[in-house]
Structures are given as structure tokens and as C-alpha cells.
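Continued from yesterday's entry.
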Amino acid sequence: MGSLFSRQPAPLLGIDISSSSAKLVELGRDKAGAWVLERCVIEPLEPGWISDGNIEKFDEVAEAVKRLVKKSGSRTRNVAMALPSSAVISKRITLPADLSDQEMEVQVESEANQYIPFSLDEVSLDFCVVGPSKNSPGDVDVLIAASRREKVQDREGLAEAAGLKPLVIDVESHAARLAASRLVEAMPNQGVDAVVALFEVGSMTTSMQVMRNEEVLYERDQGFGGAQLTQHIVRQYGFSLEEAEAKKRNDDLPEDYRSAVLQPFVEGMAQEIGRALQFFFTSTPYNRVDRILIAGGSAALHGLTDAVTAGTGFAASIVNPFEGMEIGSAVRVKKMAREAPGYLTACGLAMRRFLP
């Protein structure tokens, strides 16, 4: 298995596969060390090909990934992919700092047995040292990640079927946080001590992570997303599902669409985000956030950030993971700007190329 946390300096594609599309990002750095967006492309997937993170139509998805890579024009074949958080058990533990690598592996396996509800023979297990423990001087915090082996093999097989070499299998939420961390650092005081709520609005599910100083305070998935907007369009205008999705993507809808369909949907989505924040406040000592970041394919819906700011009382902004990057000549700038919020996880995967 490509390690869940391995860090590869080789050229690397980040490919994120969601229920509605496959997205590819390739990053470089210039001589001064600044980020360069070399490529970003998206390939739609048919409903039902991916369900709850599981690949239901393997051959069809593999062909879509092949088309994605061909469309990108990249010659790179090394790839980082990710599993949904629901397929991975993550646990932070504390271990003595003076353990050798071999001793740490033994300790991790022993600890993992307590948290993983199936045999270690059936899982892909990895760990990384996060850093010195704040609560236990002389010890280190270690992050364990484990997934059923067949889930990892599905992603590896998909890459190989598309002619790619899987070097890294990550976790979607980790990759999204990595990409978002650049944006947090651009906040006042470099985002130190800021409580940031990151919402990724997908097709079927919206995932929420609340972070402070690179620590995850709270995570939650909610069953609402952009696919519900498509269904509202179908009901309002009598289009087929395929027609509605195409017209939504191309902004080719009747004149009353914004007032009759989009505005009520956006207000409902803002209410769901507000409700998710209330769950966070009632489950933790926190009662406010400093910034709400909204990513995902539906993040750029007209009026969404205004509705969220008005409904929650906290500043909301759309995530552009490529903000501040140089843009390579292979990138279609207008298309990228429109689709940027959907590339957050793929961008985080591509960033793995440059981690120390």
C-alpha cells in the first residue's frame, strides 16, 4: 500500500474522486519556492458510480480517470488519492519520545488493536508522529490511521487501471485541511488561535471540520448537498435529471430560477450550516468561530456566503485553494476560477509532493 501518510518528493498528481466527479490537480514550485498551479481538470461521473465513497462501477470510473488524465495533458504517472473519512479510523495516541522506529511500530499495533473493530490482518495501518505532546512532557503525539484493506486496494486498483502509479493513499479530510491551512495562514496574525469552520458542500453530503492551530476540534457530516438543488430544478421545470444538471453547470436556466429555486435553496443551506455550528457549540466549550470557509462544488452558489454570514453572524468566505499561486499556461483561468472551490481536496493531495 502507498502509505496513508508517506511523503513523496517525486512529481505527483492529486486526484480526488467524489460521488459526482473526478478532479485532478498538479502543482509545482518556482525557483523562489512559490506555488505554481500547473494543471487542474474535472471529469463528471454518472450518479451511482460512486456511492458513500464506495466504487460501485469500477470500469466506468477507471475510464473516467483515464479521460481526466488525458484531458490534463500531464505526463506524470505518480498519483496521490484519498479515502473518505468514513472509511478510515483515525486515533491520536501518546507514546514515549525515545522509542526506536521498530519499537514505535510494535506499540502502534498494540494500541490499534484497542480501537479497530476487526483483525489487523484485514487492515492497512499507518501512523505518523505529530510532534511533542502538550500534556505529557517527554512524550510525542502519534496519529494512527487504519482502513479495511479492500478499500485501499480499490483506490490502488483504480489508479493502476487508469495507467497510474499510486504512491499515496490519504484521507479526504486530511487533504482538505492541508489545502485550507494555506488560507488560514493568510488570515490576520497568520491564523494563530483562530477557530475556523470548514464546510465542503458535496453533491450528496456536506462535511464540516472545525480547526484551531492545526488541531481538529470537531467533525461532522450532514446529508445535504448540491444534488438537492438539481432535484428542485427538475421539480420546478420538468427537466430530466441529466438536463437539469447540465443546465445548472452551464448557467442556462429560466429567468425566474434565482428567485424561485436558487434563493430558497441557498437559504436552506445556510440554515443547515447554522445548525451544524450549533451542534459544535453545544458539544464543545466554544461559542463562536472566527471564520467560516465554504468549499466544494456548490460553494460558489450566488448569495451563499452572504446568507451564511447573515444567518450565523460569523464572516463566511468561499475557498479558492489556488489563491496566491502562480497560474501555469496549461490552466484555463476562467474555468478554474469558477470551479476552484471544488478542488480543495485534490489540491491538498497534490501538495503532498512538497511536504518535508
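--- second protein ---
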Amino acid sequence: MRIRSLRCDSSMAPTLRRAVRSRWRTASLAAGWPFPGDWEVPAVDAVCAAVVSGDDLSDSLAELGASRAESGVGLAGTLQDLAALHAVAGEDSDGLVSADPDAVPASLIRIAALGWADAVSGMSVGREVEDPLTGLNTAGYLRTRLHEVYREASSRGSTADEDYALTTVVLGVSTDGYPRMVAMVLIADVLRAVFDSGETSALLRAATAAVLAPRTPQLSARCQQARWMIEHRLAADPALRDCGQIRVQQEALPEDHAEACRLLASL
């Protein structure tokens, strides 16, 4: 991809980059870009710089595709924007241009699409391992983490229960609806604050959270601190005072991972 004025003096490069960016934005809006205020992202400048200098576009186009995905732009919109760039940066781009995705070389489409797909995949994985309300890990992630713990214990010649403790935090059984949701958000915040050294905190059920932590001399004190902080925060909110008694207790880890998974399902 080249522009016709590429051969001019290097001092003109900033001017050329601004010109490419301006014409690209105009062509993209004309082609139906729906978010005028969100079009300008750092990746746009990187692409324009590569176009003007004649550098390889692979990295900057992949970054552009990822940026569009992270901004919530669909693949069709991303490729339409790429077509606008291709139209204004071509050898015969004087005057009016038409942003035609079918005219873009397949190699460029592939690079931008892969960047977009990689970003979407990363965001999907993030949603699958975190509960969207509390930000705690999901029970599925905790099962995976336990599998690693059992493998680690086996390699050491010890047991998972010797090395790690599973602590559960359970709200009163009568708690339901909005108070429960708010209470679990507060509980999640406390668990992140107290267990902030690489422990795994997860949401097992709507009213049950768990922490997988190494057995250390400080573990009991940290569990007591978590209980006190949770009770204090719930008591401070009149809407949460009826959440019932908070139960914090340690669960013995079974002999193998399969039994541990059954334990999580029963808590």
C-alpha cells in the first residue's frame, strides 16, 4: 500500500501522515463509520506512519484490528474502515474514492481480521473466567486451579491439603435478590483486599465465595480479618443488615482432583 507523494522530502512526512489520516477518516465516515468520536485511536497514527514511510503494515494493521475490537466495533465495520484506508492510500487516490472491501488485498484483510479476532478471543476468555458482577473467578477456573495444585502436590510427594487450604464464605440462607448481590460485591472486594498475594478467589454460587490459599502461619489471622471486614461493611449498610450470619470456614481438600470437584459442587 503506497501513496503517490511518498517520494517527497522526509521533512514532509508529518504533513503526509496528517493528510492520510484526514482523508482516511473522511472516507470511512462517508462509507458509514457509525462512531465519529471514536474513530481516532493510537493505532490509526501507527498505520498512517507505516503507509507514509513505506514500512511493513503487518504490526500496525493487527494493532488496528485489535483496537477496533476492543472498542466494540464489529468485524464488518473494521474491514470497511480498512477499505477506506486502502482507497485513500492507493496510487490513484486523487479526488473522490470508494471504500470497497472487495478491492482490499486479501493479505491486508487477513492481518486486520486476525488482530480483531485475537482481541475478541482474549475478551471472551476474560468473561468466561470472571463473574461479571463480583469480578471473582468462576467455579470453572477454580477447578482448573485445583488441578494445578494437585499436580504440584504430587510432584512434591505431598498432598494438596497439606499445601493449600480452601476457605468458604457463605451468606445467610435467607438472603436473596438485590441485597444478596450487593453483599456479594462487598464480600468480593474484601477477599481481594485481604488475599492479595496470588491466592485464587472464586464465586461458587450466588451466595458462596471461596479462596484457595497456601497454608501459611498467617492464614487463620487473614481469615479472621476477612470475616471482621465483611461483617463490618454489611452492618454499615442498613439495606444489608438482614443478610444473616456470615459463615467463614475451611474445607479439607480431598485426596484427588475429581473428589475436589465434587466437593466444590456440594458447597
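The chain has ten helices and five strands. Residues 4-128 form one domain. Will compare against the first tomorrow.
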